[in-house]
Recover the amino acids of this structure.
């Protein structure tokens, strides 16, 4: 709390977390924080905020709120979502408020993901808090099409031009000819080359999961490998900072956190990959596990994968056993 300079009332509020919170619910909770008490709702702002919340003719926020905007918390929620959605706000005081909300919000969301990392049965909330902390840093939603806005020299208008041209991922930008980029952005050479260069030197990750032949009725072992596919290119030049890292967070169907660790790019740069053997306890609901690699600073680099672990005995549904051919074959090999 002291490290991130977080108010005691904010900490008390987050102690009520159930562990299953969605992105939308976390934003609602953050909008209630003591850190934003200096943001006031003024009468003349309500019209703009209501339009951002619900309007059939304009782009509106991702998670609209019920009814009209009538509280400070609703205003904060609305401004957070407008900023993350790249929705322009033509009002100076609201722009100033948004700046203030994000300065404090970066701190609060980072504290929240660290706080949730110390608990066990809150996989959904932890994953969403990591995603939200990154969204606050990038000022973009995690599924945003405006990935180019994160590159140097590209603001909202140029990233809009990129989106209109269908360049909605780093891969698409990298695969586009430099001269074509300049035409899209109405810029002179070597602007296109500079954009391509910065995308080329962003870290690119690959995730591989393999189940090891050692398993019982209740335990399975998986081998997770994270590969930095362009690690040779990154030896000389990097777009991300030296402090950039990814968080590997794995959870099961019972919302338990199986594994959670930050992996620095500097570690991956040495050998190009990182491997870890992880024990997976069998969940009650299903054998499905969710494996997520979340970048600390960038939208558009994350990897999210579902994986089904195998156990010795087939899963029972009611009183009937569900047999699995692949499982049988694997367990007979094991004997």
């Amino acid at each position: 709390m002291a490290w991130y300079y977080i108010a005691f009332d904010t900490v008390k509020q987050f102690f009520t977390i159930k562990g299953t919170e969605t992105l939308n619910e976390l934003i609602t909770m953050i909008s209630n924080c003591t850190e934003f008490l200096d943001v006031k709702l003024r009468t003349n702002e309500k019209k703009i905020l209501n339009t951002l919340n619900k309007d059939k003719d304009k782009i509106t926020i991702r998670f609209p709120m019920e009814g009209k905007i009538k509280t400070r918390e609703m205003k904060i929620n609305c401004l957070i979502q407008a900023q993350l959605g790249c929705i322009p706000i033509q009002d100076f005081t609201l722009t100033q408020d948004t700046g203030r909300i994000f300065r404090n919000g970066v701190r609060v969301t980072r504290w929240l993901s660290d706080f949730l990392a110390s608990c066990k049965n809150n996989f959904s909330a932890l994953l969403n808090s990591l995603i939200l902390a990154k969204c606050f840093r990038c000022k973009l939603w995690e599924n945003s099409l405006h990935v180019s806005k994160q590159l140097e020299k590209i603001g909202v208008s140029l990233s809009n031009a990129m989106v209109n041209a269908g360049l909605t991922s780093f891969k698409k930008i990298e695969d586009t000819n430099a001269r074509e980029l300049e035409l899209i952005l109405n810029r002179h050479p070597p602007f296109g080359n500079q954009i391509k260069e910065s995308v080329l030197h962003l870290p690119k990750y690959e995730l591989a999961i393999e189940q090891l032949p050692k398993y019982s009725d209740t335990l399975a072992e998986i081998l997770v490998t994270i590969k930095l596919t362009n690690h040779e290119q990154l030896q000389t030049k990097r777009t991300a900072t030296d402090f950039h890292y990814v968080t590997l967070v794995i959870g099961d169907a019972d919302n338990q956190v199986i594994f959670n660790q930050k992996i620095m790019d500097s570690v991956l740069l040495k050998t190009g990959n990182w491997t870890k053997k992880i024990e997976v306890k069998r969940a009650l609901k299903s054998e499905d596990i969710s494996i997520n690699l979340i970048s600390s600073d960038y939208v558009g680099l994350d990897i999210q994968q579902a994986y089904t672990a195998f156990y010795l005995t087939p899963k029972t549904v009611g009183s009937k056993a569900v047999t699995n051919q692949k499982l049988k074959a694997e367990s007979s090999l094991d004997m």
Remarks:
- The chain has a mean pLDDT of 91.
- The two ends are 52 Å apart (CA to CA).
